[in-house]
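INTERNAL AUDIT FORM
Audit reference: QA-55
Scope: verify that the stored structure record matches its stored sequence.
Auditor: D.O.
Record contents follow.
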Amino acid sequence: MTDDERTELTPEELQALGGLPRERAPGDLLEERTVQALYDRGLLGGRRVSSPKRLTHLASGVAAAVALFVSGVAVGQWLGGRSVTETVRVVQQDNALQAAAMVQQAGSRYVTALADLVRLADYSTDPAIAQGREAALTALFAAATEVARIAPDDPAAAMLQQILARMREPGAVDRVRNVVWF
């Protein structure tokens, strides 16, 4: 505004214009930003004293970081727990399938070994045949016991276990017939 323009104003306008502040109040963080910029440029040395507002901002940032970390840990634990439970279930299922396959293989080998023993018994009177028969009955008794434990309500398993238990008694071979009905 030039002096010529001021003369065109009325005295009331000049008085109102004179009452206006000549400076604008800076924002709350202007001083803090200015001091930080001076520190960053190396123009201020010494120890910097933080303002209460800066400390409040710093504390709220730390609190937010801690809250984020804790919630991340909690979510990770929850998801990890679900994953472990699912993994254990799958491993147990796989173990059960493997155990069933092993039983089938062992049963097939047992029957094959007994068939070989029968073929040898037809042509030999070797005392080892009696030992093989005893081993076969012992394995069969142990297997029947385990089957009865797996399925305690299965009448065939219970009956087989009882018959084999009677066979193990002294002199049982003479009393029990060689036919087992299922």
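Auditor finding: record pair retrieved intact. The CA atoms of residues 124 and 138 lie 22 Å apart.
Action required: none
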